[in-house]
Amino acid sequence: MALTNRYDFVLLFDVKDGNPNGDPDAGNLPRMDAETGLGLVTDVCLKRKVRNFVGLVKGEHPPFEIYVKEKAILNNQHKRAYVGIGKSELLEGDDKKRKGGDAVDEAKQWMCRNFFDVRTFGAVMSTGINCGQVRGPIQLTFARSIDPIVALEHSITRMAVATEAEAEKQGGDNRTMGRKFTVPYGLYAAHGFVSAFLAKQTGFDEGDLELFWQALTQMFEHDRSAARGEMSTRGLYVFKHDSELGNAPAHKLFELIQAKKNIEEPARDFADYTVTVDEANMPAGVSLLRKVE
Q1: How far is CA 148 from each of CA 35, 70, 185, 194, rounded to the nearest angstrom?
Q2: Residue 65: beta bridge partners?
Q3: How far apart are CA 197 and CA 26, in angstroms?
Q4: What is the pLDDT of residues 250-292, one digit of tens each?
C-alpha cells in the first residue's frame, strides 16, 4: 500500500567500549566534532547497517536485493536492468555511458522494484551504463552524541606474525603491536525524514516502511564486532503526520525528545541518562509512535 503520510523520526543509540564509526583519514579515531567534542556517526554508516540487516533477513532476493554492498560491481546491476526490461540491445557499442535513451526511465523503475536500498535511500545510477538518478524518500542526518565523548587509545599485541620473514626479524618473539580506539560510553541521536511524495516515485510502500523500522530497532544486534563494543538502539520515536505534506516543522518535533545526563560523573551506561518526551506540546495533526523506548 502506498504511503499517504509524512514521517519524521528520532533514533537514539549508544556505544560502550567500542568505536561506532572510525575515521580512516584520522587513523580510525572515532569521528568527532573538533569544536564541541561531540561524537559523530555518519548517515552512510547508519544506512550500511540498514542495508546489511535487510540483506540478512530477506536473503538478497527481489524485491529486497541490495544495490550498494561489499564487492558489488554497480554497472553489472545496471546491465541487469536493461535485460530485465527487454532492451539489452541498447548495451551494445562502445559508448555505453550515453546509451539508454527513452529506456532510462524504464531501467530506473526496474532498479527501484528490485533493490530495497534504491527505492529507500535513492542512488546515482548514471555512471557507465545509465539507469538514471533516484532521490530516495528516506533521508538520515549524521548522528551526534548528547555529550562530548572521549576517545581512548589502547595498545594491543598479537602473539603471531604473518610471515616467516617477520618471525626471523623478531628473533623468535612473534609478538606484534597495534592500536585500538574506543569510546567508553556515548549516547547518540540521529534524525530522519520520510517523504510520501518521493515514496510514490520509487514505489516505496507501507511494507518497506515497516521493514525499515524493524531494521533500525534490530540492526545493531546483527552487527557485532570486537571493534564496535556494545551498541544498541535505545529509542526510536516516530512522528506520523496526518497528511502527505506534513502538519508541523520537523525541527519542532525533534525538540520534543530530550535526553539529559542525570549524574555529575561521566556517563558509562544508558541508565545515566533520562529521556523525556514532551507530548503536551505535540502539534495538532501529528501523533507519536514509540517503536523502541
Answers
A1: 10, 32, 10, 29
A2: 115
A3: 39
A4: 999 999 999 999 999 999 999 999 999 999 999 999 999 988 7
C-alpha span between 105 and 107 (Å, rounded) = 5
CA 202, distance to chain mean position in Å, is 19
pTM tops 0.90: yes
Q: What is the DSSP letter of 61?
A: -
Rounded alpha-carbon distances, angstroms, from residue 202 to 112, 206, 216, 238, 267: 6, 13, 21, 22, 42
Q: Amino acid letter at 120?
A: T
CB atoms within 10 A of CB 45: 17
**How far lies 134's CA from each of 75, 106, 123, 131, 145, in Å?**
16, 12, 5, 9, 30
Contact 44, 117 (CB under 8 A): no
Instruction: Name the one residue in this structure whose C-alpha cell is 553489472.
Output: 76
Query: How far is the C-alpha of 162 from the C-alpha of 143, rounded, in Å?
Result: 37
Q: Rounded to 5 degrees, what are φ and ψ at 178?
A: -155, 180
DSSP 223-242: ---TTT-EEEEEEEEEEEES
Q: What is the pLDDT along the chain (293 residues), one digit of tens a residue?
A: 889 999 999 999 999 999 999 999 998 999 999 999 999 999 999 999 999 999 999 998 999 999 999 888 999 999 999 999 998 888 876 554 445 567 899 999 999 999 999 999 999 998 888 999 999 999 999 999 999 999 998 888 877 777 777 777 776 566 777 789 999 999 999 999 999 999 999 999 999 999 999 999 999 999 999 889 899 999 999 999 999 999 999 999 999 999 999 999 999 999 999 999 999 999 999 999 988 76
Whose cell is 526511465? That residue is 105
User: Is the bond into 63 cis (omega within 30 degrees of 0)?
Assistant: yes
First to last CA, the chain: 27
Residues making up the chain, counted from first to last: 293
